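The instructor's notes for this session suggest beginning with a concrete chain rather than abstract definitions. Hand out the sequence below and ask the class to guess, before any prediction is shown, which regions might be ordered.
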Amino acid sequence: MVEVVAVKRQMKIIEDRPLQRWVLRLAYDGCAFHGWQKQPNGLYTIQSVLESALTKIADEPINVVVAGRTDAGVHATGQIVHFDTYAKRSAEAWLRGTNTAMDKNIRILQAQQVAADFHARFDAYGRHYRYMLESSRVRMPQLRGKVGWTHYPLNVALMRQAAQLLIGEHDFSSFRSSDCQAKSPVKTLYDLRIVGSAQLLALDFHGSAFVHNMVRNIVGALVYVGAGKLSVVDFARLLAAKSRRFAPPTFMPDGLYLTGVDYPEKWHVATAPLPSWLWVHLD
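After discussion, reveal the predicted structure:
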């Protein structure tokens, strides 16, 4: 009888607190985690850390939905997640309270309440990635884990020529990992720009969506073009081959950052600006 009364009391509390949907913008250092997705074996992942901290602040179980999962070693400055909760908390409470309860390698940058039918993944129509690449005979130790590296001198002009071949809708099977779970390898790359100097480059990707390891595989192929190990014509043939069999190895995750996610204006979730500390003014 006591248990029934307790359940009814809890149901009454929930009725008095309508379900809310919140959006969070995240930044994290991917080196500290075994990727985004929560693992059954208890590995330290971004999702597990975030959900644990949100659960403490909400005083109820919280599950998050992410715009796009990132692999181990991949960073973010503008990742987007949403979650539902009955807890009545202010945006400031979600931001400051959760950050205090969380690993210092991940931070909530912004919290906002949104319409109940918003979806962080399915409503996104674009993703932005930046890959930072160092080209030097000896790798600078200060950049380890944060910037990719090649010892090859790079011809940036040839890399830009090859990059332009990827703009538009293509079958990106040649740049797709073997364990990719995407339903289709056909994606649209809106833009791919390479800025900076031959010693420190930023490769900016803007696309509808990306198959698993697509950015890192493209970077690896472009490095081969810049190093003279693959011609621009060969790069075009690689794209047309639609097979990883002829592709260079997947490049390291160190320099890859998810920098923003695009949503229709009706949701009032703005794309994150590229932070100035991430070499934003390279030209």
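Then share the key points. The longest helix spans residues 2-15. The first strand starts at residue 20 and ends at 28.
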